[in-house]
Amino acid sequence: MKNILIIGSTGQIGSELTMKLRSIYGGDHVVAGYIPGAEPKGELLESGPSALVDITNEQQIAEAVSRYKIDTIYNLAALLSAVAEKKPQLAWKIGMGGLFNVLEVAREMGCAVFTPSSIGVFGNNTPKDKTPQDTIRNPRTMYGVTKVSGELLSDYYFIRFGVDTRSVRFPGLISYVTPPGGGTTDYAVDIYYSAAKGEKFICPIASGTFMDMMYMPDALRAAIEIMEADSSKFIHRNSFNIASMSFDPEIIYHNIKKYVPDFQMEYQVDPLRQAIAESWPNSLDDTCAREEWGWKPEYDLDTMTKDMLQKLGEKFGK
Ligand code: SER
After folding, report:
1. Is residue 118 within a helix (H) or strand (E), and if so which, with residue range?
2. pLDDT value of position 318
3. CATH class of the domain comprising 172-213+246-315
């Protein structure tokens, strides 16, 4: 990767990935693509170039690629699962229409493309524990439908046109930097904010509901390492299961309580997010990612909790 365009640079993953890539490849080589209303600010704005790139506008993508001699596109524009259920047409327009635009520009201008996939590609008939790499993908959410279709379209562009498309299936991502918006796994971020602020946490996901989760530093590393990997060992491309930890609300609550003994949690289950969570795996088998490009997580629940509470404590001055 020499010159990189991030589409969705101010979002949950983009805001951190852009800074991480700039620290490795140099600020001038990483372009922060944004849409009106979500302009980069502060360090993100000052540390390198930014460009108006609405993923639904193929011309804007092509102009940024040509102007900055882009060879790699990180396509991070998406609506998360619970929002996508409320706005399915928009979710399709961004997730699929947008991906199609990116792939067409990549085909014409010779770019590699990273598009995150998700545990959301799996559905009720998928094996729930140690979910295999190659298994039933039958989501019943619009988020999952766009992610499965995105995997298929990305593989198609590789097979048919030789576009270097690569992807990982992210679990719920946890970070103290940019809050997610409208995901099913977001409770595992919100719970740390409540604990750090000394507030009681109202949990929208029922006790006993296990989902795969990952600390953002591991997720950023995965997104970079897969694009840097020697593809001669790839059997898969779009998309690889990756995993680092799996827990339910009780487990994360008790882990936080080790460090914040007064912390309280109460359940008020949200039926929409609960139904989505129940349709997703409990834990993924990431053997293929480990074997084909050397994936290995660094954080577990306890090391993540310590870091999250420390960083959020600094943020809230506690
Ligand atoms: N974090 C996402 C969501 O909950 C899953 O990939 O929508």
Report:
1. strand 117-118
2. 64
3. alpha beta
For ligand 1, atom 6: residue with the closest CA = 118
Report phi then psi at 243, rounded to 5: -150, 155
Domain range annotation of the chain: 4-171+215-241, 172-213+246-315
**Interval between CA 28 and ligand 1 midpoint (Å):** 31
**Strands, E assignment, 30-87:** 30-34, 50-52, 72-75
Rounded CA separation 66/60 (Å): 10
Selected from 3.40.50.1390, 3.40.50.10330, 3.40.50.720, 3.40.225.10, the CATH number assigned to the domain covering 4-171+215-241 reads 3.40.50.720
Q: Is the CB of 119 under 6 A from ligand 1?
A: yes
Same fold, 4-171+215-241 and 172-213+246-315: no
Contact 167 CB / ligand 1 (< 6 Å): no
- Tell me, yes or no, if 143 is annotated catalytic: yes
Whether the pLDDT of residue 234 is over 70: the answer is: yes
Q: Cα-flanking dihedrals φ and ψ of residue 5, to 5°?
A: -110, 125
Backbone φ and ψ of 280, nearest 5°: -95, 160
Token representation of residue 128:
């729930």
Provide the pLDDT for residue 181.
Answer: 81
Q: Does the predicted TM-score (pTM) go above 0.70?
A: yes
